[in-house]
Structures are given as C-alpha cells and as structure tokens.
Design goal:
Chains A, B: InterPro entries: Arg_Kinase (IPR023660), ATP-guanido_PTrfase (IPR000749), ATP-guanido_PTrfase_AS (IPR022415), ATP-guanido_PTrfase_cat (IPR022414), Gln_synth/guanido_kin_cat_dom (IPR014746). The structure is a homodimer of 360-residue chains. Chain A folds into 2 domains: 255 residues, Glutamine synthetase/guanido kinase, catalytic domain (Creatine Kinase, Chain A, domain 2, 2-Layer Sandwich), CATH 3.30.590.10; 92 residues, no CATH class. Chain A is built from 13 helices and 10 strands. The longest helix of chain A is centred in the last third of the chain and has 47 residues. The first copy, chain A, has 360 residues and is an alpha+beta fold. In chain A, helix 4 packs across helix 12. Chain A is globular. Chains A and B meet through helix 9 and helix 13 of A and helix 9 and helix 13 of B.
C-alpha cells in the first residue's frame, strides 16, 4: 500500500476486521513514548540534532519489515502538503501536534496503517499500534515488538530509577498510553454517560472526544485512556484500562437492551429518521453528520436497520472530516457551505452504494 | 364506482387531472344551499318532515344521471358506520356537521365524487361541485345544472326580494359559497402569509385550514372562500374569488421563484430532508406528516425532487387522516401510537411504490 492509498482510502485496512466487542469498541491503541539517549528532547534540540534522528530512524524501516513481513513507508513531513498531513490526523495515523510543523519531522507507517512511528513530535519517537475492537493485549504485543526492533539498533534514554525518560513528566516510566475508542450512544441517550465519565476519572483514566485532548465527544464516540504511568507497570496499566473498558461495554450493552425493551418503537423511529436524513440531505455539518451516523450505527448494531453494513460508520467517520473532504475535492479550496454539500453528497453516495452491494 | 370504492380509495377520481394552476390550487368548490318550500329548516323540522325530504330526493337520482350520464349513489347516513361517515369528511365529500348525526340524513354522490348533495344538513339541500385546479366556472356551471335538475322536480324556497331562503342568514340570497383549496408553502416559509390573510379578509373573503371553519392550516393548505352572499350575484361572487385566487397564485409563484433564486441550496436540503424522513420514519403524527408532505410537494413542484409524482401529495393528504387510517386498519381500534405507526408505514409504502412506478 503506497502513501496515496493511505491518504485516499477512508478506511484503514486494520479497521475492516471488527475485532472483539467491535460493535462498541471501535479500536484499541497503545502508544509508547521513546527518546534517543544523550540528545535533547525535541523542544530543546537543535535542527541538526533532530535531522540526525530522522536519518537514524530511516535505518529502522528494514528492521521493521524483517519483524513482521509488512511493508513500512518512511515519510518526511516536509514532503507532504499541510492538507495531506491533516488527512493523516483525521485517519488517526499521526497527532495534530505532528501535523502542525513539518521541519525535521517524519513518520514511519505500516502498509495497513496499524503501526505508525511519529518522529520528533513531543518525544523523539512515538510508537503507535492499533487493533480493531477491544484488543489492548495484541496492540501492546505489537508495540513491544516494534520497540524491541528500535531499541536493538538505537540507544534509548532509560533510567533504572524512573524508567523511560520523556519530554513530559506525565509520560515518565513506561512511556505508555493505552486507549480505547468506544461508541456509547445508549449511555448518552439514557443520560448515564456523565456518571461513567466521573467514575472513570476517579480510577485515574481520562475520557475525551474522538480526536483526543480538547476535542468534543461528537458522534457519541469517546476515547478512554490511562492518565498515570510513573510507578505502574505496562501490564498493570493495560489490564486496568481493559477492565474498565469491559465494564463500559457491559453498561452500554445493558443500556441498549433497556432502550430496546422500554422504547423499541421510539428508538426505531429515531434511528430510521437519522438514516433518512443521511440518505437525502443536501447539506450536512460535520457535527450533525457524526450524530446521525452514530444513531444509524446504533440502529445497525441493534438489528433495526438492515439496509447497510456497520462498517459504513467507521468509513464515514473519516470520509466526512474537513481535510479528507478537501483532499477529495482536489485543488479548489472548499468554503464551509461547499464542504457541507460535499459531505452530504459523499454520505448519500456511500449509503446508496452499500445498500446496493449489501442489499438483501 | 360503488360506495366501497369511494370510501377505500384515497384519491377522488376528479383529483387526478391536476387542472389549471394545479401546482398551487388543489381544488375549486361551489356549494349551493337550497331548502324545500313550506317545510321548516332542518333544525326546526319534525323527523317525519325530514324523512319526507329524504324520500323526495331519492327520485332526483335518475334526473341527475340523465343530466350527465354519470352514476349517482343515494346513501342514507344511517346505513353508514360513524367511521365511514368520517372517512367521507376526510375526503371532503360531506361536512363534519352531516357526519355527526345520521338520523333522517342522506347523501347523493356522483361516481367520481365531484358532485355531492347533502340532505338535511343545516339546510335541506347542500349541493357541492368540485373541480381540480383553479376552475370555479366549471364548478359553478356544474352546480347550476344540478340545481336546475333538482328545481325541475321539487319546489325550492325562494323570495323575489331576498333570493334563496336558507337556515343561516349569511347564506341568504344566492345560497352560494365558492372556495378554493390552495397550497402556499412559499408564502408561509417567507412569512408573507399573514399579510395575505389580512388582505383577503378585507376583501370579504375567509381564509381557513384544510377542513373548513375552525380547522388549522396544517400542511400549508388554506381554504379561501366568500363570506358575503346577500346582495351579490353568483357570477360576481365567483369572479371576485377567482381574481383573489389568481393573485394568491401569482404571489405564491413569485415567492417560490424568490426562494429558488435566493436560497436554492437551503431549500433543496430542506425538501430532501423532509422526503428522507417520510421515506424512513417509523412514527408520524398527522400534523408532522402534513408539514413534511407539503415540503415534499413544494420540492416536486420546483423540480428539486424527481423521485415521485406530485399526485402522491393529494393522495397522502387523505390516506394519512385518522379515520381513513382506522378504516384501513379494519376492526381493531387504533390507539394514537398505533395510528402514527400505521401512518408512517403507509407513507413509506406509497413513496416506495411510486418511486418504483415513476422511477427514472
């Protein structure tokens, strides 16, 4: 898979599988922060030092291919247009932070986009492994293998007392952040979500919107991640998050069954109306699109809507983001109204195509 | 066409044509109030006197058939269930007043439902002639022919000084009420409707909702009718209403063009969303259904929506009324929630069928 494919296709290949509890947990993610020994952290390093790290990391590409047989691409951020960088953000392949500046920054990404390494973001290296569904262990195993391959070639800053050294003290220790992206429409509809956010926070977890820190929880999608790393082992962090995620899944599932039992007709009307608007609207804001898509996905999961497959939700989550739309539109810069029109058009087309394909 | 057909089919045959300005004027109607000479008005007559009038009128059925070759049905109201009577109201064949009580009341109706004579409503006879589109003259000609046929056989109360005598003094003189049913979504959307209602009222006309006096203007449908009759000739009344209706049509048409010119995209989004909700909702109240149907009809008239023909609007106006729904449902009495579900189901089915049939 070439870079063009990664940029053009809304659905990352690793997303297609579904995975355990894939009706509620869209993806599991492990991120490891790593820094080169004896080189200042990116925000204090000279340009030449950062460039040297980029050069060093180029050598790791073959190591990674030898590791798992996948193709890995090495991409200097300067070779990408700002638009292309933000498409990678919308596809959850890089962080908004990395997209902001291109100089001396690079990305290694696996052909299926399940593994990516950001170079010279807040830390020298940010290793990210993604897995479909609730599958933190596989993501952790994958991240550890990638980390081993990198540490086999490069000297990584590590203190016996503090663990991995990182630019921000909140990452000190394992340098690990584990997160799950969960779709919780029933907990939102039934008003239970706030209690859940409070409970998760008390357990040392953070609950955020779909694009991480500072983003809103549009489309009823939440990212739950560990906050603490210093003083905790990798396995402990992952198990803690896993056990909370399991409870969240169970609560969401109960809330869905309660909705079905108590107000099946109201729910059916609601999700079908959302589907009807998506099928025919001529203009859709990003926020409205996500809300309606969330309701449609709930309808699909509850077997109320059978006209389209569940994966259209994951696909349209990306396709309808502003930068992805701009990429589709080509040269001419889209105004907000044109963007809303294009978004509606793409959703209509996608639902129509999938209806025909999946039509029973 | 038997009574069963008149009750079961939502679209009266005379509606299918469209008629002049049929995109805005759904129908034109002439009603003549007539009373038998030397018999008290219905609210003061004895049962035996009313029964005698019903008997007398039975003889007019053949006269009417000889007049225009159409079949005419004679229906005693007591032979109909209350539900069937109210279906006739929803189809604009009889008035709510006639449906309320059945004793000594009857109806003569032409096989295409374009002509009906209510017997022993407020007056002994209420002759009604309907024509599609803006076509008051044809409706008046038709009503006069029917009136002549009746007056050829029966002695009708008439004073040289006051004209036709009627139970209510507002009908004295010609006994004529002329009305047009107009669909004015653009005047409503653009906020011009109130000015129009005020102007029409100053010209001695009444503007009401779809089911006459006291009914709300749901679905952007209005009935405009003359208020005054004493001291005015038939032709004068009809010409006065016609000229106002023409202006209303012109204003509505200008308002539609202005909407297209100023906010085509917003309008397209709005009418397609309405269509999407109608195509997929699982529950629709009568009022919401009419509002959405009105927007869809506007979309069809402005050639924004091309998936379904305009006549579905006229058809669904009747099909989605409570009594018609109850008739469709058969024996079991519908609760409000069931009715809303059945309404949504029928609308979905109708749009689906017409899409397939008319599909381009």
């Amino acid at each position: 898979m070439a870079l063009e494919n990664i940029l053009d296709q809304p659905l990352n290949p690793w997303m297609a599988g579904g995975g355990p509890d894939g009706d509620i947990v869209l993806s599991s993610r492990i991120r490891l922060a790593r820094n080169f020994e004896a080189v200042p952290f990116p925000n204090r390093a000279k340009g030449s030092q950062l460039a040297a790290i980029v050069d060093q990391m180029r050598k790791s590409v073959n190591d990674l291919t030898n590791l798992d047989g996948h193709r890995y691409l090495f991409i200097e951020m300067e070779k990408l247009s700002p638009l292309e960088r933000y498409v990678l953000v919308e596809k959850h392949i890089i962080s908004p932070n990395l997209a902001q500046e291109a100089e001396n920054r690079a990305l290694i990404v696996r052909d299926d986009a399940a593994v990516s390494i950001m170079i010279n973001e807040e830390d020298h290296l940010r290793i990210q492994c993604l897995a479909p569904g609730l599958n933190l262990n596989d993501a952790l195993k994958c991240a550890n293998k990638v980390d081993d391959a990198i540490e086999g070639r490069h000297d990584i800053a590590f203190s016996e007392q503090m663990g991995y050294l990182t630019a921000c003290p909140t990452n000190l220790g394992t340098g690990l952040r584990a997160s799950v992206m969960v779709h919780l429409p029933a907990l939102v509809l039934s008003g239970q979500i706030n209690r859940l956010v409070t409970a998760a926070t008390q357990l040392g977890l953070a609950v955020r919107g779909i694009y991480g820190e500072g983003s809103e929880a549009v489309g009823n999608i939440f990212q739950i991640s560990n906050q603490l790393t210093l003083g905790h082992g990798e396995q402990e962090i992952v198990e803690n998050l896993y056990s909370v995620a399991r409870q969240v899944v169970d609560h969401e599932r109960s809330a869905r069954q309660a909705l079905l039992a108590e107000s099946r007709d109201v729910l059916a009307d609601r999700v079908w109306r959302a589907y009807g608007v998506l099928r025919y609207a001529r203009s859709l804001s990003g926020q409205e699109a996500l809300s309606l898509l969330s309701e449609v996905r709930l309808g699909i999961d509850l077997k109320i809507i059978d006209e389209v497959p569940p994966v259209i939700f994951n696909e349209l989550l990306v396709t309808t983001r502003p930068n992805f739309l701009q990429k589709l539109a080509g040269q001419a810069e889209l105004g907000p109204a044109e963007r809303d029109r294009l978004r509606a058009q793409i959703i209509r087309q996608c639902l129509e195509d999938n209806k025909t394909r999946g039509g029973k």
